[in-house]
Every structure is written in structure tokens, then in C-alpha cells.
Write a structure and sequence with these properties.
- The chain has 154 residues and is α+β, with helices and mostly antiparallel strands.
- It is built from five helices and six strands.
- It folds into two domains: 66 residues, Winged helix-like DNA-binding domain superfamily/Winged helix DNA-binding domain (Arc Repressor Mutant, subunit A), CATH 1.10.10.10; 51 residues, Dna Ligase, domain 1 (2-Layer Sandwich).
- Helix 2 packs across helix 3.
- The protein starts with 10 loop residues before the first helix and ends in a 12-residue tail after the last helix.
């Protein structure tokens, strides 16, 4: 499911549009991810707790799961790093990840359509999405000396 709501929609509008009940935890989680793209669950938990006070870890995980299932968040899982959540959904963008610090950036498809959705052999599958992850060192880590063997995969 993809998000088609306008960018100016409030978290409450997004939740209603996805058929979800509006709860303080869901609104706070959407705010948290909106403020911190590619946020970890721990970062979302800290932000939600700062906004609402006491909230359980399980409640935040349940909210993240519901928001992801509804297409309001996208979960990405770079190898060797914790899962991250973003509000940019409904397009075919990819990610670039720093091998050292885990910083993540968005990378738009370099062509006007999604060429990566046409594999050379689909093995009979109906392809719905493709994930491309670029790996390297961010400018900050590059300035500290590589310290990473570029031939080693994550």
C-alpha cells in the first residue's frame, strides 16, 4: 500500500485517510519520523516518550507496525544496522548507507521510470517493489580516514 495523501496533510488526516484510529501515540510517532527521517525504533520511542510521557516499548513497536502496514511509513533494513522508518512512501527511491556510522540518505531513481522493477529473470514472480542499497562512506567518515575495506560487503 502506498501513501497518496498530500504532503501538507496533518498526521490526523493521514491516519483517518488510512482508516486508522487517531491516537496520541500514532500522531507522536508520525511527528517523530517526520522530524527524523530514517529514524530507528529507539529514536521514535525516545521522541514519543518526550512528547507523551510514559509509553511502553511494545506500544511504540505496535504503532510502527500499524503505520507501516497502512503505508504511512516505510521500513528499511540495511544489513548490519537496525531497522529504520521513513515517511517517504509511494515512490521507488533507494538508499545510500555509510558503512561506518550508518548515516542514510535517499537516492531517487536515476531514470524517469523504475528500471529496477524489470529483473532479467523474474522466476515467475510478480515484482511489486525493488530495493537498491548503495554502500560507502559519508563525507564525515571519509574525512576520518576510511578504516573500512570497500571490498567487504555489509
Amino acid at each position: 500500500m502506498t501513501s497518496t495523501a498530500p504532503a501538507a496533510a496533518t498526521p490526523e488526516d493521514l491516519l483517518r485517510g488510512a482508516g486508522l484510529r487517531v491516537t496520541a501515540a500514532r500522531v507522536a510517532a508520525l511527528h517523530a519520523v517526520g522530524e527524523n527521517q530514517h529514524a530507528t525504533a529507539d529514536a521514535v520511542l525516545s521522541s514519543v516518550r518526550a512528547e507523551l510521557g510514559t509509553v511502553s516499548v511494545q506500544a511504540v513497536y505496535d504503532v510502527l507496525h500499524a503505520l507501516t502496514d497502512a503505508g504511512l511509513l516505510r521500513r528499511i533494513e540495511p544489513a548490519g544496522h537496525p531497522a529504520r522508518f521513513e515517511r517517504r512512501t509511494g515512490d521507488n527511491h533507494h538508499h545510500i548507507v555509510c558503512r561506518r556510522c550508518g548515516a542514510i540518505g535517499d537516492v531517487d531513481c536515476s531514470v524517469g521510470h523504475a528500471p529496477c522493477l524489470t529483473p532479467s529473470d523474474d522466476h515467475g514472480f510478480v515484482v511489486e517493489t525493488a530495493e537498491v542499497t548503495y554502500w560507502g562512506l559519508c563525507p564525515g567518515c571519509r574525512g576520518q580516514g576510511s578504516g573500512a575495506d570497500p571490498s567487504v560487503q555489509p
